[in-house]
Design a protein that fits this description.
The chain has two domains: 58 residues, no CATH class; 175 residues, MetI-like (MetI-like fold, Orthogonal Bundle). It is built from eleven helices and no strands. The chain is flat.
């Protein structure tokens, strides 16, 4: 296990380094496109690349922003990050319990009317990306019903308006995850409810509710936990577009401002690409470890032994 962890950490560093190197070269080509075919420019580019790489590895300094009055890009990112984290945490604590609850209800009522209704909504909403849902809820609840603001409230506005300003983006972020988690939990729990050990629990005298609580939920939901963890990345990346659509002053707006044609903020692009790539690699690593912790039968990184 320790050997596997160390090996994965090494590969994560190599993948991150390779990916960031490709992004750096692409940005330099765009920035210096007038010198792209000049042989005299190759040597300075190589020197610049290794200087940039040394600065990132040794100090973590991504440089100054071109759009924000030469302020450090990492400092600007930290200012915007709390809004993005708050939005994603609120969404997480909504779509996880609701997805599990609807999945359990559908599995327990398999092939009944309630299951059919939940399955219908699951099929519909599981295919709707968060940015499409964002447009729909703005049109319905913002412009047509006028229940919520059509844009995120300004920072100087306090009170209820700040809370109502989070409702629409949260709805847009939670609908697809709820549908996906519901489908996964229903599938796993349905298989458990027809398994031999569940039938044996009923034979021993447990009621259906007791058997579901003591055996069904644990066996049916635990395998879905790694999937839920990995799905957080999907929601987190989708929130960038939602933030842009709803004018939320988070990292999404920061990123799209940095890639606007004519106003490229190269250091900001590099820094945010580094952060999101590192978060993705770490999350996938934790998901793999979770599989081994949840199911002891899985031995991560172990080699097959041949017996004679």
């Amino acid at each position: 296990m320790i050997r596997y962890i160390l090996l994965r950490l090494v590969w994560m560093f190599i993948i991150l380094l390779a990916f960031m190197s490709v992004i750096f070269i692409m940005i330099i080509v765009i920035q210096e496109r007038t010198y792209y075919n000049s042989i005299d420019r190759i040597a300075p580019l190589i020197i610049e690349y290794f200087q940039w790489l040394k600065r990132i590895i040794t100090t973590g300094n991504f440089g100054l922003s071109d759009l924000y009055l030469n302020v450090g890009v990492y400092e600007i990112f930290l200012r915007k990050l709390p809004v993005t984290i708050k939005l994603n945490l609120i969404a997480f604590f909504i779509y996880v319990p609701l997805g599990i609850m609807f999945g359990v209800i559908a599995a327990v009522n398999k092939n009944k009317r309630l299951d059919n209704i939940i399955s219908l909504f699951t099929i519909i909403f599981a295919s709707l990306p968060s940015f499409v849902m964002m447009f729909l809820v703005i049109l319905l609840f913002g412009y047509y019903l006028r229940w919520f603001p059509t844009l995120y409230p300004a920072g100087d506005l306090k009170g209820v308006i700040q809370i109502t300003g989070l409702v629409l983006p949260v709805i847009a972020l939670v609908v697809e995850p709820i549908a996906t988690i519901t489908r996964l939990v229903r599938g796993e729990l349905t298989e458990v409810l027809t398994s031999e050990h569940f039938v044996l629990a009923r034979v021993k005298g447990l009621t259906k509710r007791q058997a579901i609580i003591r055996h069904g939920l644990r066996s049916g939901i635990i395998p879905v936990i790694p999937t839920i963890m990995s799905y957080m990345l999907t929601v987190f990346s989708g929130s960038l577009i939602v933030e842009r659509i709803y004018s939320i002053p988070g990292t999404g707006q920061l990123f799209f401002n940095a890639i606007t044609i004519g106003n490229f903020d190269y250091n900001m692009i590099l820094m945010m690409t580094f952060v999101y790539t590192a978060v993705s690699l770490i999350a996938m690593f934790l998901v793999d470890l979770t599989y081994g912790i949840i199911d002891p039968r899985i031995r991560i990184g172990s080699r097959k032994r041949h017996f004679q």
